[in-house]
């Protein structure tokens, strides 16, 4: 896959580490757990969106845009990384935040990712839950144009065919690392939300005929809806790469058993997963995405989904800045 034919700005501190989690593996009685440290991508705290933004911001520059507009929930990791990427590119940034998570602590809208987004120079606007955020982005773009600007809209999570190229690249990087380490990867697990990370990984792994099973642990949508969303993105990125029709829908696997009461809402399994990973591996997960992703992986291990000698890679998509907005949940 010739990704260099697409505009790209190098933000990622890569390749990101691929490390064993030996103490967590021993605690859980196997399999052999590994972590792909995409929390270490750089760019104002890092995270998976940095890979997507390499292609998205480059596309915005190619279109001579001067203002980036994006949206997400309050405490969006994507919004923080977009603000940082815009700052690096010398662009203005408009962040539109949906009040999707009810009944949170008083500082929920001012600390963590929200504080960092403002520090990075973004303008932050709030919207009520269930607002049409795409329409809000279009309205904001109209205002920017009326003022003489040139806007570029990035969808929530950076999850478009362009953004998903970042995780096609990650799939390549991961396989090259495994080859150099003589590591046979049997399964990859990660948190799946807006779908671009799983869609890009699924496309990349299939196009390289890796034979590696991939499971996304949903943090919001129910299984059927999330499979459809991820499959659509995987197909779109394959089409963009000139490989239309290569994606096998059966390879898109989603487990929706760890969402709990809803997106961004705490669960006992998430709290346990974040705590165990911190205290046994010194790795910080986040309460919205990777905490529930790790909870799913732990649940799969306890259910006997893997053999004791299999090698399972957890893709750590970042987000630890949001922990500061969830302090009460860990009291």
How many H/I helical runs? 10
Strands, total number: 10
Category from helices, strands and their pairing:
alpha/beta
Distance between the termini: 47 Å
The biggest sheet amounts to:
6 strands, mixed
Q: What is the spatial order of strands in the main beta sheet?
A: 1-2-10-7-8-9
Task: State the low-pLDDT regions, or none.
Answer: none
Strand content: 15-25%
CATH architectural label of the largest domain: 3-Layer(aba) Sandwich
CATH topology of the largest domain: Rossmann fold
Shape: globular
Encode the helix/strand succession as letters.
EHEHEHEHEHEHEHEHEHHE
CATH class of the largest domain: Alpha Beta
Number of separate domains: 2
- Averaged pLDDT, please? 97
Q: Nearest-angstrom radius of gyration?
A: 19 Å
Estimate the helix proportion, in percent: 40-55%
From the structure provided, what is the oligomeric state, counting identical versus distinct chains? Answer: single chain
Description:
With 331 residues, the chain is of the alpha/beta class. The longest helix is centred in the middle third of the chain and has 20 residues, at 161-180. The model has no long low-confidence stretch (mean pLDDT 97). The chain has two domains: 3-47 and 160-330, Rossmann fold (3-Layer(aba) Sandwich); 49-158, Rossmann fold (3-Layer(aba) Sandwich), CATH 3.40.50. The strands form two sheets. The chain has a six-stranded mixed beta sheet with strand order 1-2-10-7-8-9, with helices on both faces. The protein has helices at 22-28, 49-62, 77-89, 112-119, 133-146, 161-180, 196-207, 223-240, 268-281, 290-302; strands spanning 18-20, 32-37, 67-73, 92-98, 123-127, 151-154, 187-192, 213-218, 253-255, 311-316. It contains ten helices and ten strands. It is globular, with a radius of gyration of 19 Å. It starts with 17 loop residues before the first strand and ends in a 15-residue tail after the last strand. Helix 2 (49-62) crosses helix 3 (77-89), helix 6 crosses helix 7 and helix 6 (161-180) crosses helix 8. Helix 3 links the parallel strand 3 and strand 4 (92-98).
């Amino acid at each position: 896959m010739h990704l260099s034919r697409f505009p790209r700005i190098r933000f990622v501190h890569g390749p990101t580490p691929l490390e064993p989690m030996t103490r967590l593996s021993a605690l859980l009685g196997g399999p052999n757990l590994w972590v792909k440290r995409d929390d270490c991508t750089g760019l104002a705290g890092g995270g998976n969106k940095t890979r997507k933004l390499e292609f998205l911001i480059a596309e915005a520059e190619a279109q001579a845009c001067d203002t980036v507009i994006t949206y997400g929930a309050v405490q969006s990791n994507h919004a923080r990384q977009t603000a940082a990427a815009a700052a690096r590119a010398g662009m203005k940034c408009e962040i539109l935040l949906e009040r999707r998570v009810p009944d949170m602590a008083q500082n929920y809208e001012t600390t963590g990712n929200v504080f960092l987004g403002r520090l990075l120079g973004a303008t932050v606007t709030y919207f009520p839950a269930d607002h049409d955020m795409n329409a809000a982005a279009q309205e904001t773009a109209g205002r920017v144009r009326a003022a003489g600007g040139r806007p570029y809209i990035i969808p929530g999570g950076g999850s478009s065919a362009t953004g998903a190229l970042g995780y096609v690249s990650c799939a390549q990087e991961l396989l090259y690392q495994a080859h150099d380490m003589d590591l046979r990867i049997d399964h990859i697990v990660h948190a799946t939300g807006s779908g671009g990370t799983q869609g890009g990984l699924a496309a990349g792994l299939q196009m390289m005929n890796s034979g590696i099973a991939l499971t996304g642990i949903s943090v919001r949508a129910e299984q059927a809806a999330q499979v459809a969303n991820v499959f659509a993105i995987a197909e779109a990125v394959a089409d963009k790469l000139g490989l239309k029709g290569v994606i096998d829908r059966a390879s898109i696997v989603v487990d929706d058993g760890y969402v709990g009461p809803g997106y961004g809402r705490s669960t006992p399994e998430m709290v346990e997963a974040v705590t165990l990973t911190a205290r046994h591996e010194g790795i910080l997960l986040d309460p919205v995405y990777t905490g529930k992703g790790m909870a799913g992986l732990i649940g799969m291990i306890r259910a006997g989904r893997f053999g004791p000698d299999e090698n399972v890679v957890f893709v750590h998509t970042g987000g630890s800045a949001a922990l500061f907005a969830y302090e009460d949940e860990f009291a």
